[in-house]
């Protein structure tokens, strides 16, 4: 760990030993930080609610998304047991959030689960991570001396990145996800495609979950409206992890960093292209070069394009 964690070793162990159900309906969203985790888990939750015959109003009847989507690492510390915590609409799917690397997640939890890996332009991940963590943990030794996003791009934290068991940096995360792309229980989602055509991506997620016959085009558009950036901003307290913090304090279960801090997740800068605008040309080029050398593709845009072709061949959707 780069910085003392906010969770206990017991909670981590309970999360790492989680075994998916034999039903095959468990979906694990394993992402690199600041790549669209909250957005994707929310979409999956809305899809399962509609597939179960519920209304979107009923699906939104929670105070914090963590109450209905279990975060494996923090679950025990919040009074949730990932092994048997009852989720709403779980007969359709149980949804779990993780920041494990793709290869670690699939090896650890096995082939009974379905895995959604969310990819995002590494320049935007870099910018978003810096903007998120700098005010959140400004006194942490790995960030307090970093004044600019360029400084962050050159730091050991960004380039090594052992945070949340990612087992590597964002380049390594993308490499692993790309190598797992042909597994039938793996779906690759690009943040930029969510931004570009959300109803289409909702349909893709519904098909991956096995409920496409219950989610028609009208439902896809309604889900996209409820999960649009503007809609989520209007109810952003549902996505700020306040419940997790409260539960940790009430139960007295938290790591050396103290209880998890409430955090703004639905920010005003959840856009595409922000990283390229924020970074100097030299640093941006270095990040893109490091990504290409690790992943083995010319650019993130090439990967995104190939994912679109993969979706067309396997799922019947042409992305981009």
Automatic annotation (TrEMBL):
Region (Disordered): 254-279
Superkingdom per UniProt: Eukaryota
GO molecular function list: sulfotransferase activity
Annotated Gene3D superfamilies: P-loop containing nucleotide triphosphate hydrolases
Positions of the Sulfotransferase domain: 25-294
Entry keyword set: Transferase
EC number: 2.8.2.-
Pfam families attached to this UniProt entry: Sulfotransfer_1 (PF00685)
Keyword Protease: no
Family: Belongs to the sulfotransferase 1 family.
Name of the protein described by the UniProt record: Sulfotransferase
Biological source species: Pycnococcus provasolii
